[in-house]
Design goal:
Elements: E1 8-13, E2 16-21, H1 26-33, E3 41-46, E4 49-51, E5 62-67, H2 71-92, H3 94-97, E6 100-106, E7 109-114, H4 121-137, E8 142-147, H5 148-157, H6 161-167, E9 174-180, E10 183-185, E11 202-206, E12 209-213, H7 230-246, H8 251-259, H9 263-288, E13 292-296, H10 303-316, E14 321-325, H11 354-365, E15 374-376, E16 381-383, E17 396-400, E18 418-424, H12 439-455, H13 459-476, E19 486-489, H14 495-508, H15 517-527, H16 545-548
Parallel strand pairs: 1-5, 13-17, 13-18, 14-17, 18-19
Antiparallel strand pairs: 1-2, 3-4, 3-5, 6-7, 7-12, 8-9, 9-10, 11-12, 15-16
Length: 555
Amino acid sequence: MSDCAAPMARITVSGAPYECPAGTKLLDIAKELQPRYPALITLGKLNGRLCELNKTAEDGCAVEFVTIAEMAGAFTYERSLVFLMIKAFRDIAPEYASSIYLDFSVSNGLYCHVKGHTVPERLIGQVAERMRSLVSQDLPFVKSTVRCREAISRFEAQGMYDKAKVFEYRRSSQANFYTLEEYQDYFYTYMVPSTGFLKEFAIFPYAQGFILQPPSRELPCKVRPYVPQPKLFGILQESANWHEKLGLGSVGNLNDLIVRGEANDLILLQEAIMEKQIGDIAEQIAKSGRKFVLIAGPSSSGKTSFSHRLSIQLNALGLRLSPVECDNYFFNRDQYPLDEFGNADYESIDCVDIERLNEDLLALAEGEAVETPIYNFLTGKRESTGKTVKIPKENIIVLEGIHCMNERLTYRIPEERKFRIYISALTSMNLDEHNRIPTSDVRLLRRICRDAATRGYSAQETISRWRSVRAGEEKNIFPYQERADVMMNSALIYEAAVLKPYAEPLLFGVPKDSDEYIEAKRLLKFLDYFLAIPSETVPHNSILREFIGGSLFDV
């Protein structure tokens, strides 16, 4: 009697026909096709839905692969690497392992610390060696599902109280655990199949803790040399320390505070602290005696509201500001440089008529009358107003724009006359000990809410533009941020809870068959960890009002 041929599954991979034995995992297909991809495959898509590589390809399904060069793939590698690092600590120094905190992203690495300890350099070397040993063994990350009550008990037994606290407010009755040998942990989204995927990383001592580096999306095949950013690190560390003093280092602590009815007190406290910070910056400007104040920061940082509040503080010190709109110095749109895809590069500094901007700024500073242009965004052309502007010589000139940290923009103005301010929403509260909140997530939620309210854009449209916005920031903003005289963190510890009722309906409106649905679903899951705070008690001069409406300022 002849053997029957094994049944085959006919599928498509990135649109091309592919045949494999029925029951084949995406992992096996990925291993075969990996040479066709320029970066490591870390996830798959089955019929447009993101999934781990241990999923099975069924007959007739459509498969795509996600690499580390894409955001979802990069986050998957990062989370898996964090899991590997904690497991290595547990093997080498178990007394440290239960107190490891993943704090924030800085430069091209993740800063971590061990609560109550300065981590010895020798220990970091041993951990790195153990991590590489685990990688060489290619051990599986085993996924299992447990009930939330059981998850809480396991976390408390391991001393992971922030994780336990988060799960107390989960609506879902179940949670996915991952196990590496005997060590179990929870990460709020996907993992790579095994330790063998994590060949590229670096780990080294930094400050009181250490830096863990995965490969970058820009150079996905290797770890970039670490570039210290002491000013950015300092402002992030300051925020993290403040959160710890308040007992609000994680989302579970914030939810506890909301349940106790103390959200309004928190809002007023943080807004008071922010007002003091803005006042301190105004005093530094006044003492510096500098003529030009340059304000820069990435999208949705609250630059406009900040500028208004800074103006009020300077007025209180007897100083007056005269704003100059950098946008009005754009060239006509048909003169914009092209990006690598042949499209107009709207984020390039070469879109700005730098020569005329510098001429006008110097003339205005001397009290001369200048005919400043105005840019028509509908026609894409710079127009003449026929009117002249004259600024009192004692006034401070304020220039706001994404390129203000780049010395090229104001190259004719002496450095000693410029005061640079960098502002960004630098989130430093995390979901729990081991799951960080990317700074860009909160900025994206801010932008989704603002775009829907003031520009008529859907969440799908905003998400579709976000990648190019982020690419522009990486190229034109972040490389220059350390040149700032001061940095301002505009993140509000309570804001995700306030943004939640505004953002959720918009995210639910993203079509399930769209490319943007995966990101919308991820953001919805992120918001699900927060209890909501009504917006009524958010002050009308708050930076958050720029994104939810009701601001006192013209934003």
